[in-house]
Amino acid sequence: MTEAHALGGGAVGRPSQIPTSGLGKLKKTIMLVDDDASLRTRLKDALLPYYEIVEAKDGMEAVEMTGKLPPQTLAMIVCDVVMPRVDGFTLAKILRGNPNMKKLPIMFVSSRNSPQEVTQALVLGACQYLPKSTPVAQIVEKIRKIVV
């Protein structure tokens, strides 16, 4: 948006680079963290009508990205458990150590589904733990119930 546009009665306070949906509300941001680019793409395509999406291919990249995002813009992290460099559980521990991220909803979507892993995720404060075999539509439905 140009300065002249804003001065001429344009959308002051809502620059064009800030995504919006619906009645001028800011879209909430979901971070997808998974080394499986195919799953990230399927989830992203299904979530884009409702949310802004940022992607990370592993926990290390996610930590770097969360450090650059204003904490209030990130509404949820959807994360795999098994990833290179930094796994999902370690990412959750790092985020829970940050006062701005302590209450951030984290949903794990993983091919590992042992009772011990599910329990570990819940102990780390995960709001959901789903198998990767869960249909994308169901994952999106659960996200939309959590991030309103």
Short summary of the structure?
Helix content is 37%, strand content 20%. It is α/β, with parallel strands linked by helices and 148 residues long.
Fold and architecture overview:
There is one protein chain. The protein is built from six helices and seven strands; from the N terminus they run αβββαβαβαβαβα. The protein has 148 residues and is α/β, with parallel strands linked by helices. It has a single domain (20-146), classed as Rossmann fold. Mean pLDDT is 83; it is low at 1-24.
Mean pLDDT, to the nearest integer, reads 83
* Pattern of helices and strands: HEEEHEHEHEHEH
Q: Kindly state the number of beta strands.
A: 7
What is the radius of gyration computed over CA atoms, rounded to a whole number of angstroms?
17 Å
Query: CATH superfamily, please?
Result: Response regulator
Assembly status: single chain
Unreliable spans? 1-24
Question: What spatial order of strands do you see in the largest sheet?
Answer: 4-3-5-6-7
Helix content: 25-40%
Which structural class do you get from the secondary structure elements? Answer: alpha/beta
